[in-house]
Automatic annotation (TrEMBL):
Family: Belongs to the WD repeat IPI3/WDR18 family.
Protein name: Pre-rRNA-processing protein IPI3
Coiled-coil stretches noted in the UniProt entry, renumbered to this chain: none
Quaternary assembly: Component of the RIX1 complex, composed of IPI1, RIX1/IPI2 and IPI3 in a 1:2:2 stoichiometry. The complex interacts (via RIX1) with MDN1 (via its hexameric AAA ATPase ring) and the pre-60S ribosome particles.
Record region (Disordered): 539-574
Subcellular location: Nucleus
Protein's organism: Aureobasidium pullulans
Ranges: WD repeats: 126-159, 180-224
Length: 574
């Protein structure tokens, strides 16, 4: 059965809600199950998290603290706080990338930190924005990072370029690929689409009461949406068909890309409304009926939003600690998820991957413990793009590696990629390899005879004959070294010079065979070319004869039409 989970975090409230019997004091982050059963599954204490400052991986929870320049790291397996990671300045937003192995952080001064949690390496950019970074998102391919700021700008960064060791000599002088400029006030929220192609979109919300849809690959503004109030948070539909925004009064509004408002300028166009150049310059104002009102006015501002896996349910976290559930198909408030308000304003709602798919496999790499940042430990200008010697990777394989014949108790598969791979992945020496090796050792020197068992699968020498048959015992000289090319002269086998002469004779014979083969291949190639040329010539001759026959017939019929007499050709008369 499929199950959906999400993480919710709170910040310190100006007036903490009254504790009830169902609430736990000092719980800052909670893991809830929303489908098929509702309830709290885990909780972590001592966290004061601002909006856009929560990231959750399968093994850890990262929460940037609002009151200090630290990031709290919690272990989901152990259920406790694993580490407190200090930074040079206060972190205002964060996001996970590269299959949850890289954490991207935005700072209060406008800089970007890229932290490899498996190695401890940290890449720090220069002052990317003029003011603090308010939101960070990573596209599905982990190739691009979008950073939004209170200075109304959005930078698009290349994550592989930031992590490349060839750029280590820049010493923080990294530059974004391009800047998305279109807002006139601080950006409050930023989301990116779910597509892995080059037509993916990003949506930004600003305090200037507008949202803009971007093509961040091409640095192009696709559409501007004018809103009735300042949007506080955004949520994008799983199929990128619409986005949802919430306001200070707790209400929610849907902006549908396929609605009449987006196609008003050209309603008969068959092109996607976002990519129609005839409508790009026209702002969109969603109708009032697309705005949904909360059940009561005491819910407070909606600070976070999240959609379910199928996009049929919208959840919003509010200033009074409640998490409201909205029915998207009906377009109205449905219920309150939390029976009692949480211990502060719900600043973050993060959906987790759906569990329960029958063909789902766990991730190959599991991060048991994180490696704290090692600032400037790997930034050496003299490496010339090489990996530093102190660069170590700390990880654990969570399941069996995809390698065949890894178990001695399992029978080998009939489809073997190669003998080398079989020998490499076998837990012991394969029987076939032992048999071939023993046979090779037996023939290495003529003075040594090793008797092998009749079946090759036995892969062991034949036991010695009984005492009554001593003649069957192999006579091995104590001084004979059958692993050495320079056997002693007392050996009855061929000497080294004789063996070398035999090898030279074999090599000369192989060269003669190779030369004869090449000559024969060249003769066959010429014969093939001549045969193809003859076939083409025969075809051309046949076509020419047909053309001549057609011309003679046309002349005869033309004479008949003009004179009334039909003159037979020579061939017809014959």
């Amino acid at each position: 059965m499929l199950s959906e989970h999400f993480a919710a975090s709170v910040s310190a409230a100006a007036v903490a809600p009254k504790a009830t019997s169902n609430s736990v004091k000092d719980v800052g982050i909670s893991i809830f199950e929303s489908q098929p059963h509702s309830g709290q599954r885990a909780s972590f204490k001592k966290s004061n998290t601002a909006p856009n400052c929560l990231a959750v991986s399968p093994s850890h929870v990262f929460a940037a603290q609002a009151d200090k320049a630290v990031v709290n790291v919690y272990s989901r397996d152990k259920g406790n706080q694993e580490a407190t990671v200090p930074f040079q300045e206060r972190i205002t937003c964060l996001a996970l990338a590269c299959e949850d192995s890289v954490l991207v952080l935005g700072s209060q001064t406008g800089r970007i930190f890229v932290w490899e949690t498996h190695t401890g390496r940290v890449v720090i950019t220069s002052q990317a924005h003029l003011q603090q970074v308010t939101a960070l998102v990573v596209d599905p391919t982990s190739n691009f990072v979008l950073s939004a700021s209170a200075d109304a700008s959005i930078h698009v960064w290349s994550l592989p370029a930031l992590l490349s060791f060839s750029n280590a000599a820049l010493q923080g002088q990294h530059s974004p690929l391009h800047t998305l400029s279109g807002h006139r006030a601080a950006i409050t929220s930023l989301v990116v689409g779910h597509s892995a192609g080059f037509c993916n979109i990003a949506v930004s919300a600003s305090a200037d009461q507008s949202c803009i849809v971007w093509d961040y690959h091409e640095n192009q503004l696709l559409r501007t949406v004018l809103l009735p109030a300042v949007p506080r948070c955004l949520a994008l539909d799983p199929a990128d068909r619409a986005f949802y925004t919430a306001y200070d009064d707790g209400s929610v509004q849907i902006v549908d890309f396929y609605s009449d408002a987006f196609s008003a300028a050209n309603p008969d166009s068959v092109q996607h409304p976002l990519y129609d150049p005839a409508q790009a310059a026209m702002p969109v104002q969603p109708p009032p009926q697309t705005r949904w009102t909360p059940p009561s006015a005491d819910q407070g501002a909606a600070l976070s939003a999240m959609l379910s896996y199928d996009g049929s349910t919208l959840m919003t976290g509010h200033n009074n600690g409640n998490v409201l559930v909205w029915d998207v198909p009906l377009g109205r408030y449905s219920s309150t998820f939390t029976a009692a308000p949480m211990m502060g304003p719900v600043t973050n709602l993060v959906s987790l991957p759906v569990q329960g798919f029958p063909d789902a496999r766990p991730a190959l790499i599991n991060q048991v413990t994180i490696v704290k940042p090692k600032h400037a430990a790997f930034d050496k200008a003299d490496l010339d793009g090489a990996v530093p010697g102190n660069y170590n990777l700390s990880m654990q394989f969570s399941r069996q590696l995809p390698m065949p014949h890894i178990s001695a108790s399992k029978k080998q598969s009939a489809t073997v990629e190669s003998e080398f791979l079989t020998a490499l992945t076998h837990p012991v020496f394969p029987e076939s390899l032992l048999a071939d090796s023993l046979a090779e050792l037996a023939n290495w020197n003529g003075s040594v005879k090793v008797q092998l068992a009749a079946p090759a699968a036995a892969a062991v020498p034949t036991p010695a004959a009984p005492a009554e048959a001593p003649a069957a015992q192999p006579q091995v000289s104590d001084t004979a070294d059958f692993m050495s090319l320079d056997a002693p002269e007392t050996s009855t086998g061929p000497s080294v010079e004789q063996q070398n002469e035999a090898l030279r004779a074999e090599l000369a014979a192989l060269k003669r065979v190779q030369r004869a083969s090449l000559i024969q291949m060249e003769a066959l190639r010429k014969e093939k070319v001549e045969l193809l040329a003859k076939i083409r010539q025969d075809i051309d001759d046949d076509m020419e004869d047909e053309v001549n026959e057609d011309e003679k017939s046309e002349r005869a019929w033309g004479r008949l039409a003009s004179t009334g007499e039909y003159v037979e050709s020579d061939e017809e008369s014959e």
